[in-house]
């Protein structure tokens, strides 16, 4: 991680958090799935 700048680390962590949220999505409610919002 020494190659990443602080803002890049924050973006990386935001995407990791997003991936965690995707794994928690209850797909049994399809097609009415409440998808998490992807980071910018």
Question: What keywords describe this structure?
Answer:
40 residues, mainly alpha, 1 helix, 45% helix
Topology diagram in text:
Elements lengths: L5 H18 L17
Summarize the model shown.
This protein has 40 residues and is mostly helical.
Describe the structure.
- Pfam families: Caudo_TAP.
- InterPro entries: Phage_T4_Gp38_tail_assem.
- This is Caudovirales tail fibre assembly protein.
- The protein has one helix at residues 6-23.
- The protein is elongated.
- The mean pLDDT is 95.
- The protein has 40 residues and is mostly helical.
- 45% of the residues lie in helices and 0% in strands.
- The protein is built from one helix and no strands.
- The longest helix has 18 residues, at 6-23.
DSSP, total strands: 0
Question: What average pLDDT do the residues reach?
Answer: 95
Biggest sheet features: none
Portion in strands = under 5%
Q: What gross morphology would you assign?
A: elongated
Give the class from helix and strand content and strand pairing: mainly alpha
InterPro entries: Phage_T4_Gp38_tail_assem
Pfam families: Caudo_TAP
Protein name: Caudovirales tail fibre assembly protein
């Amino acid at each position: 991680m020494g190659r990443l700048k602080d803002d890049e680390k924050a973006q990386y962590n935001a995407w990791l958090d997003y991936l965690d949220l995707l794994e928690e999505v209850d797909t049994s409610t399809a097609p009415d799935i409440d998808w998490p919002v992807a980071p910018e």
